[in-house]
Amino acid sequence: MKINEVARRLLRKAKTIDIFESKAGEVLDIIITALYIEIQAKEVLETEAATEEERREAEQALKLISEVKKEIVKQYVLAARLSHKQRRARRFFEYKTHRVRGAK
Amino acid sequence: MDGLSRDEIAKYVEELAKSFLVKDSISDFMKIPDIMGIYGRVKNDPKWFVAENVVGYAAYNLNKLRSVRKASILLDRESREKIEALYDESKSKIVENTIKAIKLMLSSDANSKELVEILGEIALTSTKISDFLSYEEPSKILNMVEEE
Fold first, then answer.
1. Domain locations along chain B
2. In this predicted structure, which of A99-103, B37-41, B111-115 has the lowest mean pLDDT?
3. Given a cut of 70, is residue A104 above it in pLDDT?
């Protein structure tokens, strides 16, 4: 399979993955494969004998991998925000319960 | 774990991998990511945890494909051959790269680019399996096997 095609599939996965629900290996698979494709694409661009088409595919793969990285970071930030919200919600619940108990 | 030398660890892992290749004992292969995790904890070295998760998830996908392969009698000949080919190809690629990764991580001159390339091969193979298992026919078989 061509590297730009692999990168496109990775981006699709990165956009649909649920960091809370997924196994650590599933997320790492996306990250490690993205790094691997990035290395391969850069190697193609450094090869003088590479054809125009190979270069075009490599450039496209690099753009897609950059999107994959952004997507994964976005997912982690969202996950962190959600857990922060959850922590705040729990504190609020504890505060309310404490007040109710205190009132008794 | 700390009592074993690097060569002894590499030899033990190779024996486990060989047992998987020859006897198709996936439980032996699944011990490898556990060893990676323990070694990582002993040495407090994060690259072992990354490898543990990548190899562990590859073993998990391979095990699912193995179950589908066992039940592939329910499918037509073409699909059976496709599953068989994917299983054999993925199995040898994952085992070969797992041994390479362990040897590289045990060596003192571990190069992170080289390690990413080796783990990337494993991750790519693992992704191919999970993509294949999400197709309609294999996923139906997988659901049937898991329900049992």
1. 6-147
2. A99-103
3. no
- Report CA-CA distances (Å) from A2 to A64, A69, A90, B43: 13, 19, 48, 38
Q: Is B124 on the interface with A (CB under 8 A)?
A: yes
The predicted model gives B100-127 an average pLDDT of 90
Q: Of A64-78, B57-71, B113-127, B129-143, which range is least confident?
A: B129-143
Instruction: Provide the residue type at B102 as one letter.
Output: I
Q: Where do the H-state alpha helices sit in B24-111?
A: 26-43, 46-70, 77-106
The parent domain of residue A25 ranges over: 3-103
User: Is A36–B117 a contact, with Cβ atoms under 8 angstroms apart?
Assistant: yes
- Judged by CB atoms closer than 8 Å, whether chains meet at A23 and B60 is answered as yes
CB proximity list for B40: less than 8 A, separation 6 or greater: B46, B47, B48, B49, B51, B52
Q: Look up the pTM and report it.
A: 0.82
Question: Three-state SS for A2?
Answer: coil
Query: Under a CB-based contact definition with an 8 Å cutoff, are residues B77 and B132 in contact?
Result: no
Return the amino acid letter for A16.
T
Q: How many domains does chain A have?
A: 1
State the smallest CA–CA distance between residue A61 and chain B in angstroms.
Answer: 15
pLDDT digits (tens, 9 = 90+) for A70-91: 999 998 887 777 777 776 776 6
> What's the CA gap between A36 and A14, in Å, rounded?
15
Token pair, residue B78, equals 């073409």
